[in-house]
Amino acid sequence: MIKRLQSLAFLFALFLSCPIVQAENVPPPVGDSYYYLEVPPGGLPDFFRWHPLRIPLVSHHRGAPAPGFAENSIEAMQNALRYGPGLMEVDVAQLADGTLILMHDNTLDRTTTGKGRVAEAVWPDIAPLTLVDQEGRNTGHRVPKLSDVLRWATGRAILTLDIKVGTDFRAVAQQVEDAGASDYVVAITYSLDQALEYQAIAPSMMQTVTMRNVEELAAVEASGLKPETIIAWTGTSLAPKDFYQMLHDRGWRVIVGTLGNPGYSIDGQIFRSGDDSKYLDILNLGADVIATDRFWAVQGQIMNPNIFVFTRSKLYR
């Protein structure tokens, strides 16, 4: 069993557990296209290796919830791909019968039509439930199993899996392998101990590893983690440009989080400023991926149809 999160990581997870407040209208997408990322077999490490001509990307927090689309749902993620391609950060929880599902909270109450603790439920309890959006409206969409999400993501989007406490990472890694989805999955880690345990179980799986300063960078380099499997997560505050360059010099792409409680997150600050072009300032500072609750706003700044070559339109299966 994976060790419990260290205290700092636990506080960070608690910070992210606050419900996302939908404080603005989401504009409709332009056109009818869906934007898909297709990774060549075995090509995920190369995809994430930093290059000066790297394409900026969005990481969609909790699978891109929006009005009418619940967090951690396949339907929300598919809707987000109408705005642009990217990563889908989703939460993986385990039921009492071992079933792996997408669910952020410890209980069903906030995001579904059911009630009770997730860890005490079995799949027949979950299957009839429907998901509700951030305004509490029933979307009619179902709680997805991880296996279904892995099949959906292959050829469409890269999943970053936030594996909740009490969830067996070995079972997650086995489902990724069984689905043939290794080129579309990154594991989120919250401590070096956790990252090393994940590496021992799934040596080839990409991981986000926290590096917010030079001390944490040095600790990662001394840890024995395989450099080719690392993506740098630098937290929800901006670092100096030269620090991002240090990470780039090591071949690592940088994920900067603008997500979180809108009262003090970078997303909230930019929304209140009325100037979404400030996301471009973050990219120019050194971010390669912006992890956000305002996916439509970031995509509106970075989308360029001449850049995104893995673009096609079709209804998802």
UniProtKB/TrEMBL annotation:
Entry's Gene Ontology BP terms: lipid metabolic process
MF GO annotations: phosphoric diester hydrolase activity
SUPFAM superfamilies attached to this UniProt entry: PLC-like phosphodiesterases
PROSITE patterns to which the protein is assigned, alphabetical: GP_PDE, PROKAR_LIPOPROTEIN
Cited Gene3D superfamilies: Phosphatidylinositol (PI) phosphodiesterase
Pfam families: GDPD
Highest taxon above the source species: Bacteria
InterPro entries: GP_PDE_dom, PLC-like_Pdiesterase_TIM-brl
Keyword Cytoplasm: no
Residues annotated as domain GP-PDE: 56-290
Leader sequence segment: 1-23
Keywords: Signal
Stated name of the protein: Glycerophosphoryl diester phosphodiesterase
Originating organism: Kordiimonas lacus
Upper lineage: Bacteria, Pseudomonadati, Pseudomonadota, Alphaproteobacteria, Kordiimonadales
